[in-house]
């Protein structure tokens, strides 16, 4: 069984994924990190050298590799992974998907200090512009994220509590 975590940038996919994987005795992989290791380039470099369209093709290739070959893994996906190439259907065919929902205000608070590392929002400089961008972007992306098997509201819970909650909710599926 593979558990995939989907959701907007900054919702905590990798942090939660690592803790959840430990709890259920699964291995953990972050798709972006996997791409960076195999391609020997950062996501930022891939975006600036090849552009977003090429990045989405590369992302699909590694998504297939992971979901078709791994067992007993928690995989955190990129924020845009479910949006392109009908990936969300593929994700649901090969894994149990969980959408980690966080509201735009909370996402903005988390992302405002990380703008330069994130190609899609690096052109933004103020809090209010970022909030506006995220509200619109999340509105467009939500229909894809909402196809996940489990919708989980992250809110202001600790990583430990979130992971315990998720562990309880997926118990039947992983047994
Ligand atoms: C993206 C999210 C990033 C990364 C890339 C594009 C997106 O992943 O894949 O910068 O389209 O939302 P994280 O959600 O892990 O930050």
Short summary of the structure?
By secondary structure, the chain is of the alpha/beta class. It is built from 8 helices and 5 strands; from the N terminus they run βαβαααβαβααβα. The protein has a 5-stranded parallel beta sheet, with helices on both faces.
Question: Mind sketching the topology for me?
Answer:
Layout: E1 2-6, H1 13-24, E2 27-30, H2 31-39, H3 43-50, H4 52-69, E3 73-76, H5 87-94, E4 96-101, H6 104-111, H7 127-145, E5 150-153, H8 159-174
Parallel strand pairs: 1-3, 1-4, 2-3, 4-5
Bound molecules: shikimate-3-phosphate.
Describe this structure in words.
The protein has helices spanning 13-24, 31-39, 43-50, 52-69, 87-94, 104-111, 127-145, 159-174, and strands at residues 2-6, 27-30, 73-76, 96-101, 150-153. The protein has a 5-stranded parallel beta sheet with strand order 2-3-1-4-5, sandwiched between helices. 56% of the residues lie in helices and 13% in strands. Shikimate-3-phosphate binds at residues 9, 13, 32, 43, 78-80, 118-120. Shikimate-3-phosphate (S3P) binds at residues 9, 13, 32, 43, 78-80, 118-120.
> Major β-sheet, in short?
5 strands, parallel
Bound molecules: shikimate-3-phosphate
Helix coverage percent: 55-70%
Shape: globular
Structural class: alpha/beta
What amount of the residues lies in strands?
Answer: 5-15%
What is the rounded Rg?
Answer: 16 Å
Number of strands: 5
Secondary-structure element order, as H and E? EHEHHHEHEHHEH
How far apart the termini lie comes to 10 Å
Round the mean pLDDT to the nearest integer and report it: 96
Counted by DSSP, the helix tally is 8
Order of strands, widest sheet = 2-3-1-4-5
pLDDT below 50 for ≥5 consecutive residues: which ranges? none
């Amino acid at each position: 069984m593979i558990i995939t975590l989907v959701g907007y940038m900054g919702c905590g996919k990798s942090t939660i994924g690592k803790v959840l994987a430990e709890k259920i005795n699964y291995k953990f992989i972050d798709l972006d990190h996997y791409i960076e290791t195999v391609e020997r380039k950062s996501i930022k470099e891939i975006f600036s050298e090849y552009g977003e369209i090429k990045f989405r093709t590369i992302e699909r290739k590694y998504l297939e590799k992971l979901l078709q070959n791994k067992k007993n893994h928690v995989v955190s996906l990129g924020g845009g992974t479910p949006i392109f190439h009908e990936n969300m259907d593929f994700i649901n065919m090969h894994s149990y998907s969980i959408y980690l929902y966080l509201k735009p205000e909370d996402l903005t608070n988390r992302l405002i200090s990380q703008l330069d590392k994130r190609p899609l929002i690096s052109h933004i400089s103020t809090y209010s512009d970022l909030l506006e961008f995220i509200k619109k972007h999340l509105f467009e992306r939500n229909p894809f994220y909402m196809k996940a098997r489990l919708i989980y509201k992250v809110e202001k819970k600790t990583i430990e509590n979130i992971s315990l909650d998720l562990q309880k909710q997926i118990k039947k599926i992983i047994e």
